[in-house]
Amino acid sequence: MQFIRLAGPFWCSENRAKIRLQTLLLIALTVMQMMLAVIITEWSAALFDALEQHSMSGLLKEMALLALIFAASMAVTVNHLKIKRRLQVDWRAWLTERVTGLWMREGRHYQVTHIQSAEHDNPDGRIAEDIRIATEEAIALSHSLFYSLLLIASFTTILWDISGTVTLDVGLFSLTIHGYLVWAAIIYAVSASFLGWRIGQPLTQATDARQTVEANFRFDLATARENSQAIALIYGESTQRKHLQGLFGDIVEAFHKQTRAMSNIMLFTSGYSVLSMAFPVLMSAPRYILGSISLGSLMQSVQAFQQTTSALSWPVDNMSAVAQWRASVERVLSLVKALDDLEQELSRPDPYRIALERTDQPFLRFHNLCLAKLDRKVCMSAFNEDIRPGEHVLMEGDTATAAKLFKAVAGLWPWGEGRIELPDNEPMFFMPPRPYLPTGTLRDAVCYPDDPIDVDQNELQQIMELVGLTELIGQLDRVESWDTALPREQQQRLGVARLLLKKPKWILLQESLDSLSPNGESDMYRLICQQLPNATLLTTSNQPTAEPFHERRIALGS
């Protein structure tokens, strides 16, 4: 039900007319598939009757009918596949956009990482992989279940008519059974389904465990790739390799656990499939031997029995897919729940939350600000300061406290007390120690998050020269992973270039130039002051190079 509440509105979204039409077409094509299955059994009965009667004209007639069935089957199957896959990808796209919107909103993607819970780890894997499985498998399983129900409704009627009436004489009394093949099929399929369910229960837990450890391994591999230079510089390959081997060991253990669970199911289903081929023939053969039914009716009853038991065995045949779907649904729902819980927590009035307000005053004001850690341990208290427009203020001392202070101004760190008043309609420009450089062209990376089309290209090249990156001008259209291709010093210079392009009035530098040489750092501070003389500068740094470019200093304690 939770998944329906989350993903069900897809059928009421903006494109609901198209979506509902596709759904109706999928249902209609599924009904056609069932009708073709019935027609094939009737054709098979007629074919074997013609063979039993040595009728050449009957054989030729059935061959002609086979060509029509062949063409109809291909048309229905291909169109069914296209409609189903289109519906799958549209649903996945809609749900991905919805969950990504909840995750990538107002810093929630950052804040949710501070909630101490494993129920929302690896959000990238949950969005990329688990949503795919949850939507694609939901449609595939719903279709197969609907198709199975249609088969049951159609082929039980055929079985009932062919079965006739059988009387069992057990000595003391006789027992008359109507439609004995239907009852045999039900007992056979239900017994097998129950046994398969009992045998396959451990598979859900094993599948969920494997998906979790696989996601952990992928995440750490990506982290190692992103920090490859740092690992290489401190010769951390051996430690990192052992860590990755440990994570892969968890994968191997989860894989073997899943294999044991799947082996039990395969052991059962393989024997079940072999028995399904022989059992209907053995059940119908006595009536054929006694002459009660023709060879065509015998073959039709066999096919009808197999179709009925196959449909009734849907839980057994789809147990693995259901387990995988359920595990993915639970992972998606747990991420959404974590984001919803975070949203509710931050939206409730709470005296132990930092109030962030926009005012009509041109000041950045801290009023009785108290910064706390997640365990509510205070790291800074009773902070009262006014930052005036155009002022250059240097914050020295504990860098972790300074980082939390900047995050509080950005609305990313609500844990604490007091109030922060932001100047009205004045966006803050934050420069972290390492600017985010998305994969793509260097031009895209420098202009991020703006579109390069909206940036004056001559100005861009001039700024690249000013920040000392003349050698990179020729690579502006080169596609690369710039966060790994460039040394940290050049990345920080790119951060300054991005700052000069934006021309903000309020600038917050969080150790943003610490990788530069003292002369290089002084050059960047001087450049910022020259190019943006009216901007307010709030800097956290313990480097003596920063002092001459700031009018006053504030000491921050731990």
Short structural summary:
The protein is α/β, with parallel strands linked by helices.
Number of helices: 18
Gyration radius (Cα, Å) is 34 Å
Q: How does the helix and strand content classify structurally?
A: alpha/beta
* Known CATH architecture of the largest domain: Up-down Bundle
* Relevant CATH superfamily of the largest domain: ABC transporter type 1, transmembrane domain
**Main sheet record:** 5 strands, parallel
State the end-to-end CA separation: 48 Å
What is the CATH C level class of the largest domain, in words? Mainly Alpha
- What is the helix fraction of residues, given as a range? 55-70%
DSSP strand tally: 13
What is the total domain count? 2
Uncertain segments = none
Describe this structure in words.
There is one protein chain. The chain is of the alpha/beta class and about 550 residues long. It has two domains: about 1-345, ABC transporter type 1, transmembrane domain (ABC transporter transmembrane region fold), CATH 1.20.1560.10; about 355-555, Rossmann fold. The protein is built from 18 helices and 13 strands. The chain has helices at about 1-5, 15-50, 55-105, 110, 125-165, 180-200, 200-225, 230-235, 235-290, 295-310, 315, 320-345, 400-410, 440-445, 455-465, 480-485, 490-500, 520-530; strands at about 165-170, 175-180, 355-360, 365-370, 380-385, 390-395, 415-425, 430, 440, 480, 505-510, 535-540, 550-555. The strands form four sheets. A five-stranded parallel beta sheet has the order 8-11-12-6-13, with helices on both faces. The longest helix has about 55 residues, at about 235-290. It is elongated and about 110 Å long. The relative contact order is 0.09. The model has no long low-confidence stretch (mean pLDDT about 85).
